Amino acid sequence: MPSSPCGPGCLDSIDEVGPGRVAARLAGVAGLLLSFPVANAVTPRGRRVPLQRGYARLLLSCLGMRLRIVDNRGAAEERGVVDEGGPALAPAGFGAPDRGVLVVTGHIGWTDIVALASVQPLGFVARADMVEWPLIGRLAELMRVIPIERESLRQLPGVVAAVGARLAAGERIGVFPEGTTWCGRAYGTMRPALFQAAVDTGTPVQPVRLRYLDRHGVPCTVPGFVGVDTFASSARRVLRSRGMVAEVVLEPVQEPGGDRRELARRCEAAVRGVVSMNQGASDAAQWIEAGHTRVQDPSVTAEAPEVRRPRRRPMLRGRRSTAGAQ
Length: 326
Fold this sequence. Notes:
By secondary structure, the chain is of the alpha/beta class. 31% of the residues lie in helices and 17% in strands.
């Protein structure tokens, strides 16, 4: 089963807000999560998408994060950025309104679900015990999360079938094929099992690069849900942070083809930025490979490449969110 070496030593320390601001944020989160079921129920079905997107963006704001969407799909002249609070330079969404799409990305923490839903509402494959979490659990039920017991591989075919049925019905489903969370600087291999649902139904796959930046635009690991983290400790760290940005990069859509393993490799390359770099995009990030863990080194420049291998960390069992077994 997938495991992550990420742990407490991976987590950054960034600027924090005061206790009063934390209390206000927590009150805002509680108010949104308590009011959402009522607002969703009284809203006509045809108008629920903008309502749900709006609630997700407000929730992200209450968590102290600003949303940035970078659209790398289509021709270069059609690409652009949607930055919350600024002008919309390009349309943003995961797929056509009446066609299913499988959304795949790396997994950093529970805030990933809020960030992705802020682009466009979608369902998720997520850890089964999420419905028991305070506040977030009720939201998971309303989002019709497909639960998965990662330790029970015999349940995996049923989960793939459930994802396929939802895709065939025209829904958007988000999955985290790494099978566990990573800190945001290191990442794991995308397991091919859940891609089978896209292959079986002929559904396009939307690769998404998701990262979190601090107030200075530097990638940070504060939202990482890794190692011995609990939901309470992770939520406290996020609520205290100042000026974070959740950046969602939409890479070119991948057609499913007939081989789930080949599809998983294509999507992993897109999510890690290989496609964008090959297309001449400005992202010059480089990755260091150390065994099965690849760590992004922001100090390396394209003009003066230097490979530095990080010290090996002791293996710590990371938090599990989704299944990604073969």
